[in-house]
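Changelog note: in this version the structure field was regenerated for every chain. One regenerated record is shown below for reference.
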Amino acid sequence: MEYDRKSAVSSFYGGRRTSVDALNSDFPPPGPPGRTRADSSSSFYGANRTSRADVYDEGIPTAGYNQTSYFDAGRKEPVKFKPGTDEEAPAEPAWDVYADFNNAGPRYSTAFGMGDNGYRQVPSPTPYSHDGAAYAKHSTPTVMGEDPATPGNVEMITVPALGPEWKAEEMRGMSKKAKREEKMENAATKWKEWKRGQRGLCGKYFTRKFTAWFLFFLCAAAALILAFTIPRVPGFNLNASQPLSSATAPLNETVPTEFSRAPANFSFPGQIVMQADTGSNFLPLTFNNIHGTVYDLQTSRAVATGDTGKLTVPARDLPIITLPLNFSYVATNDSDQTWSNWYNGCRNKAVYTDGKRPAVQFRLILDMSIQGLIGKKSTSTNVNDAACPIQLPLDSV
C-alpha cells in the first residue's frame, strides 16, 4: 500500500463506514456506480486537493480543519482592518448629556434637511394704536409661515432647573451675625496657636518666642536712645552779690522809670543774670521760652515779669542766661506795703545817714518751655538781700 492510507481511514477523517476493512485489503472496494470517490479530508493534506468535492459529504464535519480540533483559547476579537491606513479607527463620541442645553443634540441634527442652528429670533410685537393700521389686531407675534415679513428663526431660551431649597443652617451661615462669629472664632484659634508657638503674627515670622526677644531688645534700644536724647531740666544759680542789675538796651529805653504816690505806682526796667547747669544733658538744650515772675517776699504780690524768648545753650556746660524784667505795680495809695518796700529800697543813698538802702526781698519763679519735653517745667528761688537795680533822685517823691 504505497498510496496515502489516510484518505481511506475510518469515519474519524470524515469518511463513510463500510463493511470492508481498508487497512487489511490490498485495494479498496469500488464505489457506487456513476460516482467518483473523493478525498474526505480538507485541503490541509494538499494544496491542490479540494475538501468538499463530494456533494454528498456536505453537512458532515471533517477532521482536517474545524474549530473542535483545537484548544479553545477564549473569545476571539475580530481584526479591525481599514484599507489604506494603519491607524486605529477613531472611537465613537460619548453621549453628551448637555447636548440639548448646548443646542447640539439630535433635535438640531442636519440630517434629512432638518438644519437648525438653535437660534430663532423672537419678532417684536405689533405696537398698539387706536389710529394705526394695527388696531384690533393681536399684538402677539406670528409664527413662522404665517407672516412673510417675520423671520424664520425663533429664539429658544433654556431656563435652568431650580435647585434645592436653602436650609435654615445655610440661611443662618449667610447672615452677618454668623460671619462675625466665624471671624471671631478664627481670630481666637489663631491667638491660641500663636500662644502655643505654632504660628507667627506675620505668617511664619514673629512667633511668641521671637516676639518676646524682639520686644526686649527694642525696649532696651529705645531706653538707650531716650537716655541720650531726652533733655533734662537744668538748674539755675543767681549772683549772690548782685541778684538784680540795671537793664540794658533796648529794655532800658522802652520802659520808663517812675514812682508816684497819687495814684501809688511804680515802673522801672531791670534784669536778672542766671547761670544754668546743663551737665546732665548730652545734646544741646533748646528753650522755646523762659518766663520769669518776681513776687514780693513779704506780701506775695507780683511786681515784675519777663521773657527770654527762644534760645539754645550747649550741653554739659554752665552757660549764662539773662532774664529781662519789667517792674510794674499799681496800689491804692502810698500806704500799700508792697509799694513802700520797693520805694524805700530804690530811694537815693543820700537820704540815709549811713548811706545804705534797705534791701529788697523777692521770690523768683521760672516757667520753662523746653523743646523735647511735654508741658512746662517750673523752678523757683528766694532772695532775701538784693539791691534795687535803680536809684531815685533826691527830689523824687
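Spot check on this record: The mean pLDDT is 77. The longest strand covers residues 264-277.
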